[in-house]
Amino acid sequence: MPVIAVDGPAASGKGTIARAMAGHYGLPHLDTGALYRAVAVAVRRNHIDPGDGEAAGRLAHALDLSLLEDPSLRSDAVAAIASQVSAHPPVRAALLAFQQRFAAQEGGAVLDGRDIGTVVAPQAEAKLFVTARPEVRAHRRYLELLASGQPVHESDVLADILARDQRDTSRVLSPLQPAHDAVLLDTSDFDIGAAIRRAIEMVDSRLKEARR
Ligand code: CDP
After folding, report:
1. Is residue 22 a contact partner of residue 143, using CB atoms and an 8 Å limit?
2. Is residue 200 pLDDT above 90, yes or no?
3. From the CA of 212, how far away is ligand 1's center (Å)?
4. How far is the CA of 113 from the centre of ligand 1 (A)?
5. What is the torsional sign of CA 120, 103, 117, 78?
6. Cα 20 from chain centre
7. What is the DSSP letter of 119?
8. Predicted TM-score (pTM) of this structure
9. Of 17, 66, 75, 110, which is the most buried if we count CB atoms within 10 A?
10. Which residue, by CA, sits nearest to atom 15 of ligand 1?
11. CA 79, CA 32: separation in Å to the nearest integer?
12. DSSP state of 29
């Protein structure tokens, strides 16, 4: 019943790796970034200032999970608001219990995000911290946004990613950083198949160690 934590910055490949891992080990998967994005959608719909932590926290507390299906969930505009609202302690507190319940289910789970190995599931048997160079991540996100019909300039995508990295790593509460016992996987020079194979090798060896 392992818990596998996959953390990393935007477009590092963590989501794809986490989904593949869930399929490989037969575990349920939670994309925790989607929860912060859903809060961002609610903030936008309710015309709330993303800087208002108390108001965003109230929306996070009563989060309408149907917002996970909102067509704007994966847009860059929503990602930018998610990165702002996720810095507020009331928002993080409101989403923490849900994530911890998911991690505690009997058969184990895979969670991906920014603070899974450090805060949500510090007890996880295997922790991966997935990174890639910012230019590589911007190019991947650019292709994804184009494929989903969102017209964007690659230089704007890079600027958004750098701004989000800066906000996510510098916030006081649960900043984006590798857990001390995480293994690092830089996917810059890997295609996604190779990154998944490498991630599974790393997790297999961690799970073997944990069983000893
Ligand atoms: O897919 P991408 O990496 O672009 O972003 P995401 O994982 O959907 O997360 C969107 C935003 O939510 C991030 O920029 C973080 O600010 C925030 N987030 C967080 O603070 N903690 C998490 N566990 C997951 C996401």
Report:
1. no
2. yes
3. 34
4. 6
5. negative
6. 15
7. I
8. 0.93
9. 110
10. 83
11. 13
12. E
Report the separation in Å between the CA atom of 114 and the middle of ligand 1, taken as the mean of its atom positions.
Answer: 6
Minimal CA–CA distance to 144: which of 157, 133, 125? 157
The amino acid sitting at 169 is: T
Contacts of 188 (CB under 8 A, 6+ apart): 131, 132, 133, 136
Contacts of 12 (CB under 8 A, 6+ apart): 130, 131, 132, 137, 187
Dump pLDDT digits (tens) for 100-149: 999 999 999 999 999 999 999 999 999 999 999 999 999 999 998 899 88
Rg of the chain taking only CA atoms, in angstroms: 17
Q: Is 58 left (phi over 0), alpha (psi -120 to 50) or beta?
A: alpha
Q: How confident is the model at residue 168 (pLDDT cuts 50, 70, 90)?
A: confident
Whether 132 contacts 12, CB under 8 Å: yes
Q: Which residue CA neighbors atom 20 of ligand 1 most closely? A: 86
Q: Is 33 in the pocket of ligand 1 (CB under 6 A)?
A: yes
Look at the alpha carbons of 204, 6, 111, 135 in this order and tell me if their dihedral is positive or negative: negative
Q: Of how many residues is the chain composed?
A: 212
